[in-house]
Write a structure and sequence with these properties.
Distance between the termini: 107 Å
Strand content: 25-35%
Number of helices: 5
Mean pLDDT: 76
Structural class: alpha+beta
Largest sheet: 4 strands, antiparallel
Shape: flat
Length: about 475
């Protein structure tokens, strides 16, 4: 009888110990099933930060990219059942960076049973863009001009338009205390430093109509406006003057035609609506100085400039005036307006074009195709043979032809620096033999390579090697 009692006691002890080992796991499993806090898959994203309970996690997208989705995940790493929960009220979408503090209160309760907790903050980023832009058509908070903003803050273009609201409803026009204009404008995000389209509510004193405040209680019907180019004249630069835009109805403003870029014209014109006076127009031949380039003028400019005779100013001689014009366009992007300076037609205005220009320096360009012929000076005096005359020896005379401050060639006067195949018109207005590589020089036209650098003529082969080196460096 005693032996039976002892066996019962021993069995009871073993049972108690066994229950003590499994009860925690069994209770946790039962608690999880009863409360619904079961194992969930952790979030994924482009940037992830994991911290312990009570700490603050932070995520940040690359420059030019913003958060498009963000999740906070609360879980129990020491729990046998690894219970977890997703936290609500996580902000950050639209920003480059965001933070979240993992606490029971922030995550809607405790998913674990007396164990430590960890949090995972995961964010998905928009496609990176090196430049985030924002354009406001009415250039700021202009409540009396309807405008719109377009930004690339979230990676893709987003547009907002000035709109009249009566209460919470958008309307074409309204007035009174519940009438509000929601004005869009470009703002700067304090987190990322990038521009974006924002909006502000404004109570128009005299009511709102078609996305703009009215200046007076009764809208005048008369618009006073004059256009110097007579309307939408895309090939003529003009300006409009009148009570238009922010000056309506009693003010006076001037708006001029302008080029938004090398192809886009901002054309100003008059209309019966004081807020409608601008059109963006794509010029087929390029835009310059507030007007579209005319196809005929562009074609003529290209036709009158050749590699042999780059007379950019059209005065008949390739001289210092053409050099100044070429220098102003050197290394600029080739457009329809300046492509005449791309002499070799490779899409760049570079050193190679400069060398070609130098070879044509001093030439006369005849309208009838007499390219390279010298300038002709009317004959003065008479006689035969050749002699020198004029002031200070700066004139030469051959037969009946006298040339002042120039050289004589085949009964014509040619300017200083004019080159033949082997000679050039020097400072004494006589022809001298062209210098070879290494000779001292003052001007490029003195050298057979037509290139003088640091007081010495440079070999033509070296120039070509320099051009090839530049092309290799800059990917030409």
């Amino acid at each position: 009888m005693k032996r039976g009692r002892v066996s019962l006691v021993l069995f009871s002890l073993v049972l108690i110990l066994s229950l003590s080992l499994v009860s925690a796991g069994w209770f946790s499993d039962f608690f999880g099933r009863a409360t619904g806090k079961v194992v969930l898959s952790p979030p994924t994203g482009d940037v992830i930060n994991e911290v312990w309970e009570g700490a603050t996690a932070s995520v940040s997208c690359p420059t030019g990219s913003n958060i498009t989705d963000i999740k906070a995940f609360y879980y129990c790493p020491d729990d046998a059942q690894n219970r977890s929960a997703y936290c609500s009220a996580v902000s950050g979408v639209g920003y480059q960076s965001s933070t979240f503090t993992f606490t029971n209160s922030n995550c809607g309760g405790d998913p674990c049973v007396y164990t430590r907790k960890k949090g995972i903050l995961a964010a998905t980023c928009s496609a990176s863009s090196t430049t985030v832009t924002c354009i406001d058509s009415d250039e700021g908070k202009d409540y009396y001009v309807k405008g719109s903003t377009t930004d690339t803050y979230l990676g893709t273009p987003n547009t907002g338009t000035d709109t009249c609201f009566l209460g919470s409803n958008s309307v074409s026009s309204c007035s009174g205390t519940d009438c509000t204009l929601f004005e869009t404008f470009c703002d700067i995000d304090s987190f990322s430093g990038n521009p974006y389209g924002n909006l502000i509510g404004y109570s128009c004193p005299n009511g709102c109509s078609d996305g703009a405040c009215l200046n007076v209680t009764t809208t005048p019907t008369t618009v006073t406006c004059t256009d110097s180019d007579g309307g939408k004249s895309y090939n003529v630069a003009g300006q409009i003057v009148g009570n238009i835009g922010s000056a309506y109805p009693a003010g006076n403003m001037t708006y001029s035609d302008s080029c938004l870029d090398n192809q886009t014209l901002v054309e100003r014109y008059c209309s019966s609506d004081p807020s409608v006076f601008t059109q963006q127009y794509t010029c087929p031949n390029g835009c310059s100085d507030g007007a579209c380039l005319n196809a005929t003028s562009v074609a003529n400019a290209v036709a009158n400039v050749t590699v042999d005779c780059p007379d950019f100013d059209g005065d008949g001689v390739v001289n210092d005036g053409d050099k100044e014009m070429f220098s102003a366009q050197f290394e600029k992007q080739v457009t329809a307006a300046n492509r005449v300076y791309d002499l070799d037609g490779d899409g760049k205005i570079d050193l190679n074009d400069f060398v070609l220009f130098g070879r044509g320096y001093g030439k006369r360009c005849g309208a009838s195709g007499n390219v390279g012929a010298p300038l002709t000076k009317p004959a003065v005096g008479s006689g035969t043979g050749s002699s020198s005359g004029g002031s200070g020896g700066n004139a030469t005379e051959t037969g009946s032809l006298a040339c002042e401050n120039s050289c004589t060639l085949d009964e014509d006067c040619v300017p200083l620096g004019y080159r033949t195949k082997t000679t050039y018109c020097d400072l004494g207005y006589t022809f001298s033999a062209q210098k070879i590589s290494g000779d001292q020089c003052l001007n490029s036209f003195e050298c057979d390579s037509n290139f003088c650098s640091s007081g010495q003529c440079v070999d033509a082969g070296l120039i070509q090697r320099m051009i090839n080196w530049f092309k290799k460096i800059f990917g030409g």
